[in-house]
Write a structure and sequence with these properties.
Elements: H1 26-33, H2 37-44, H3 52-65, H4 74-80, E1 83-88, H5 93-110, E2 113-118, H6 124-134, E3 140-143, H7 151-159, E4 163-167, E5 177-180, H8 183-196, E6 202-205, H9 212-227, E7 237-238, H10 244-255, E8 263-266, H11 269-281, E9 291-293, E10 310-312, H12 315-331, E11 342-344, E12 348-350
Parallel strand pairs: 1-2, 1-3, 3-4, 4-5, 5-11, 6-7, 6-8, 8-9
Antiparallel strand pairs: 10-12
């Protein structure tokens, strides 16, 4: 039988046929051991998260094949065999766009593999099962909200020895690293901006109550009112869920108050865009009759008229930074002390045409 050029056989029916050690690859070791190349990489580089039986099989194959890693190419090999997953569930399209831009930029620069996983249709149990399956094929995971707030999901990855970095969560722990902004200070800055323009009756639309950033932004709103000597009024605070529809409903409630606010601060741009829509529907001019501001500085903030004053949260930069943090954690030698990173990026107040002084001031 004639063999095609380049074809080789590692095994015959009687014994292992060895090629030169320099020609044996990690993929050969993986095939011989019956495991993935990722598992071989983890064993060779001393990473945690590998079952003991798999570790033993890999080491037997390394000895049987006389595999010798190319140390000169170890950095490149580490990058090529490092698979990182970005998992998301139901974010706004503009927020997701920024996440993807940053993650793709970071993974391309580092020559790492990037897997994008959408868990929109999965329930809580299915998400845990998906995390368990994914743990066997990736070395690191990026979790934006709300997944980064799920203890069950984080537990699955941490228990499997997979490095995790959360994005835009205001909760920092010693279990996983995070990249974020100071949501409380950012919200304070926005309310202070409205107060400086003469607004004293400022409506606020909260974010998803299951996300820690929502509580911090609400606290920043309260702090700014208190610092300016203004009364906090529960009627001026309406629930939202970071969705356009929840912004519509909250805006309707605020604008039907007997004393409606002169300005509304929505805790993301999607909800702020909804406020502008409701104001126009009611015949109100923005910003002449009502000032409107948002948060995030996503694509949505410039797709309405007038364009929104907002807080710039560097989502793309956060995802890019998360890739760097993950790669450092994956490649450092195992340590009982571990060590996580709480990386805080700067936010910026972006002023556009949606704010003016209140009528009569």
């Amino acid at each position: 039988m004639q063999r095609s050029k380049g074809t080789h056989f590692l095994k015959s029916s009687h014994k292992v046929v060895r090629r030169k050690a320099s020609a044996i690859t990690m993929d050969d070791v993986a095939a011989h051991a019956g495991v993935s190349a990722m598992t071989v990489s983890r064993v060779i580089h001393g990473h945690a998260g590998v079952r003991e039986d798999n570790r033993a099989r890999v080491m037997r194959s390394v000895r049987d094949l006389d595999y010798r890693p190319n140390l000169a190419a170890s950095a490149l090999a580490a990058a090529q065999h490092t698979c990182i997953a970005l998992i998301y569930t139901n974010p706004s399209s503009s927020y997701l766009r920024e996440l993807l831009v940053g993650a793709l930029r970071g993974s391309t620069r580092a020559a790492a593999q990037l897997v994008i996983a959408a868990w929109d249709e999965l329930g809580a149990k299915a998400r845990r099962e998906a995390a368990r399956r994914l743990s066997g094929s990736v070395a690191g995971v990026i979790l934006p909200p709300p997944l980064c707030e799920s203890k069950a999901i984080v537990d699955e990855f941490v228990t499997a020895g997979v490095a995790v970095v959360s994005i835009a969560s205001s909760h920092f722990s010693d279990r996983i690293s995070c990249v974020r902004i100071d949501d409380r200070q950012a919200s304070h800055d926005m309310v202070s901006h409205l107060i400086a323009h003469g607004h004293t009756r400022i409506g606020y639309i909260t974010g998803d109550p299951n996300q820690t950033a929502s509580a911090h932004r609400w606290q920043g709103y309260r702090d700014a009112l208190s610092d300016a000597g203004l009364h906090y009024d529960d009627a001026l605070v309406q629930p939202g869920y970071f969705t356009y529809r929840s912004g519509l409903e909250a805006a309707d409630r605020l604008l039907t108050l007997s004393q409606p606010p002169s300005a509304i601060f929505a805790s993301n741009d999607d909800m702020a865009s909804a406020v502008v829509s409701v104001a126009h529907r009611r015949g109100l001019e923005v910003p002449g009759d009502l000032s409107v501001v948002g948060f995030d500085d996503t694509f949505a903030s410039t797709m309405v008229w007038p364009e929104l004053t907002t807080i710039h949260q560097p989502v793309a930069e956060m995802a890019d930074t998360a890739i760097d943090i993950l790669l450092r954690e994956i490649r450092r030698p195992p340590s009982p002390a571990g060590g996580t990173v709480n990386h805080v990026l700067a936010h910026r107040l972006i002023t556009r045409a949606s704010v003016s002084r209140p009528l009569g001031s």
